[in-house]
Amino acid sequence: MKTRASSARLPPEQIESYHANGYLILREVFGPIEISLLSLEAQTLTTRSDLIDTLNLRCRWQDHVTTGVCTFDCFDPVIDIGALCDVFARDERILTPLRALYDDEAHLFKDKLIFKMPGSKGYPLHQDYIGWKEFPESFITVILPIDPTDASNGATEVFPGYHQRGYLSARDGDYHELPLETIDESGGVMLDLRPGDLAFFSGFTPHRSAPNHSGRCRRQLYLSYNAGRDGGDQRDAHYRQFHAWLHEKYAQFGKTGAYFK
Ligand SMILES: O=C(O)CCC(=O)C(=O)O
């Protein structure tokens, strides 16, 4: 369901729609000046050569779809290096709808700034939930686009309704792609968003994104939350666990000297 946000409060139809489909779009929540400021911050962050390094656990990389060159893709986390990202992550225009979806308090759990540079390959079908006993089942991601997103630059595509089946992979603590047979590909919804819109989707909603075939970045804040009753504020604990997990993964691939800065 795609709806213009006339106020931060969600009408019951939108709450029902989110629970039925596993995603919800709110239009024009933030204004052009706010997004321009965020865009400037994102631009400044791309100059942080002191941080952008393949051994820094904060940075995620993607292969270029034609050249195969490893390309910087994402800061995870970002609110501690981007003051405005932090302000957006705690904005009531995001938290109020989340409280309505949760019928509870919402806590920031994870925060990423995905740049998806031209040529970046995108992400195969997966659910965000990871089978760690501490991982909150109430996980919801809010996408805040800085650039317009559509099929040409590899917008995120969600598959409605499947979140009701819960986690579809082994709860073995590893990240799993989903086989395409899990879903009906024709039912995918491309999150065609304008800067200032918001998209909410569940940690159990299968999603993917195609390569960015355009000549421009597809920058989006990916802000993830959990409900108060599902562990309260656990962002610091999450990142401690995530970094330990990444260290292990890097070691498995023979990559030593990883650090977090
Ligand atoms: O960038 C995208 O479109 C998808 C990113 C994603 O699925 C993730 O970070 O888990």
Q: What is shown here, in short?
A:
The chain has helices spanning 12-21, 32-45, 83-89, 92-102, 235-252; strands spanning 2-4, 23-27, 59-63, 70-75, 106-114, 123-126, 140-145, 156-158, 189-190, 198-202, 207-209, 220-227. The protein has 261 residues and is an alpha+beta fold.
Structure in words:
The chain has 261 residues and is of the alpha+beta class. It has one domain (2-252): Jelly Rolls (Sandwich). Helix content is 23%, strand content 23%. An eight-stranded mixed beta sheet has the order 1-2-10-7-12-5-4-3. Strands 6-11-8-9 form a four-stranded antiparallel beta sheet, with no helix packed on it. Strand 1, helix 1 and strand 2 form a beta-alpha-beta unit. The N and C termini lie far apart (40 Å). 35% of the residues are buried. The structure holds 2-oxoglutaric acid (AKG).
Number of strands: 12
As laid out across the biggest beta sheet, the strand order is 1-2-10-7-12-5-4-3
Distance between the termini: 40 Å
So what's the overall shape?
Answer: globular
CATH fold annotation: Jelly Rolls
Low-confidence stretches: 1-7
| Overall radius of gyration | 17 Å
Total individual domains: 1
Indicate the CATH class. Mainly Beta
Write the layout of secondary structure elements.
Layout: E1 2-4, H1 12-21, E2 23-27, H2 32-45, E3 59-63, E4 70-75, H3 83-89, H4 92-102, E5 106-114, E6 123-126, E7 140-145, E8 156-158, E9 189-190, E10 198-202, E11 207-209, E12 220-227, H5 235-252
Parallel strand pairs: 1-2
Antiparallel strand pairs: 2-10, 3-4, 4-5, 5-12, 6-11, 7-10, 7-12, 8-9, 8-11
Bound molecules: 2-oxoglutaric acid.
